[in-house]
Write a structure and sequence with these properties.
With 331 residues, this protein is of the alpha/beta class. The chain is 25% helix and 24% strand. It has 9 helices and 12 strands. The strands form 2 sheets. An 8-stranded mixed β-sheet has the order 6-7-8-3-9-10-12-11, with helices on both faces.
Length: 331
């Protein structure tokens, strides 16, 4: 039994249409999730470092939700919280529901690798003592695992002899393709892809993204964690923007257009305008560290439209123009 604090059960959660992008019940529903880590300072004084605060999102069957934001904004930690693979010093509060049932540690263990598959960011997730062909086949179901492994190897340009290699014999790009193959070969209803494409050849990047889109079109749910907003926009249905450990906006892909006037949060607009194809303008300041979060709105120290009220009030999420936003000035 993990010593993580169990998330609270709430099977009567009401899901607003703007948060799901539709009226279908979400496959995954995360509400007011907070994640802290127990640390000990000098003199063995215990403190809690909060890295995720009041984070909410949903993913429904048939869609790709892309999660974007700078490094340290909580994207990978969210994936690990969903799967129940956080370190033992993690403490969790809030609600995580899968098919409207609480994701307890016991349920996470039973679903992990079966109904919920992860494409991890680190190639160290591969078992160093197991040949990669067996690792991929073990994720497949049914009597056709060997054929499924050959098909997915062909798809990701992995030669047949790769199946007999150990992870240390693979290049970084090959190892990442094996991770993608392992997750996508399964019958998982929810696929969480954590930065699946860095270091891959452009053709393989395109194939990987297209495969994730195919999985969603097969009525599975996909959460794509990425720094590449432009790539996400080619396949995703909605975009969740993270900042300093929380969701500041969830928007339709169609909102990322022109000068970003359809977006709701100042940080989302800044991300969009920072792209090379747009204004290529950097936002002054930096994302605050978890041990130095500002009072009020987390973005207010760097926000051009901040007012005194922004420094005292932590904005709650609210529906706005078919999306979600945390900003008292958004209209």
């Amino acid at each position: 039994m993990s010593n993580q604090t169990a998330v609270s059960q709430n099977t009567s959660t009401t899901i607003p249409e703007a948060s799901t992008g539709g009226t279908m019940m979400p496959l995954l529903d995360v509400r007011d999730l907070s994640v802290s880590f127990v640390q000990y300072t000098g003199g063995l004084q215990m403190r809690f470092l909060t890295v995720i605060t009041s984070l909410s999102l949903t993913v429904r069957p048939g869609e790709i939700l892309a999660v974007v934001g700078s490094s340290g904004s909580g994207k990978s930690l969210l994936a690990h919280a969903i799967l129940g693979i956080l370190p033992n010093n993690a403490r969790i509060s809030g609600t995580m529901l899968y098919v409207n049932e609480d994701l307890t540690p016991e349920r996470q263990m039973s679903l992990r690798g079966r109904e919920i598959a992860l494409v991890p960011q680190s190639v160290n997730f591969l078992d160093p003592l197991m040949r990669v062909g067996f690792q991929v086949r073990s994720a497949a179901h049914g009597s056709e695992a060997a054929k499924a492994q050959r098909r997915v190897f062909d798809r990701y340009h992995l030669a047949d002899q790769v199946k007999g290699l150990f992870p240390f014999q693979l290049s970084g790009g090959m190892a990442r393709r094996v991770l993608v193959a392992t997750a996508t070969i399964s019958d998982a209803r929810l696929v969480i892809a954590d930065e699946p494409t860095p270091g891959l050849h452009p053709a393989v990047v395109k194939e990987t993204l297209n495969h994730l889109r195919e999985l969603a079109d097969e009525d599975r749910a996909v959460m794509l964690i990425t720094h590449d907003i432009e790539a996400a926009l080619t396949i995703a249905d909605r975009i969740a923007v993270f900042y300093a450990g929380t969701t500041v906006e969830i928007a339709l892909v169609a909102d990322f257009t022109d000068n970003g006037e359809a977006l709701r949060h100042p940080y989302s607009k800044a991300l969009w305008r920072a792209l090379a194809k747009n204004e290529f303008v950097a936002t002054p300041g930096a994302q605050p560290s978890p041990d130095a979060l500002p009072p009020g709105c987390l973005f207010q120290p760097n926000c051009k439209i901040a007012t005194p009220e922004c420094a005292s009030v932590r904005p709650k999420e609210r529906e706005l123009r078919g999306g979600m936003v945390r900003c008292i000035h958004a209209a």
